[in-house]
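pasting for ref
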Amino acid sequence: KDMKKIKKLIDEHCRVKGVDENLGLNELLDYLLELFDVSWRTDGTGFIDHTIAMKAKSEQLFVVCVDWLERVTKAIDNGTWIDYFGELYETQYQSKGKASSLGQFFTPASVSDLMGRIITNEEKGIRKVNDCACGSGRLLLAHFAANNYKQDYYIAEDMDIMCVKMCVLNMMPP
């Protein structure tokens, strides 16, 4: 249900901007990547001015961003993880044709939790985790949470650029 509310906000952004609603998730991901881009450090804008400008750019996507950050914070406080973008993608945007043509399958949270707990590849005290079909990064998120948010070395790849963006945002340090 919650993701339907989020999709409505994204759809409203698309209507205001004159963008096809099917591209809404990509609009959100690009917006968030721009919001968290640190170019404001060198262009003289400053963080607060950059954030104000981004809010003005899209009130709807800014609300979605706040919702995402609140949910991630709550999950971390509870010692767990959330795949905000993967859930949004699966429930609101993924078409059967795209899933079929790309062979997309999002690993259930329970399986990700199990895999996250059993992955051990210690090398000089640093754990390396590679997910060569990362999707939104669920396995990596589960491993990160299962290991008490220890900064291990994560490698993620996917052939779908939208999935790469979801994974990047999901794996931003807390």
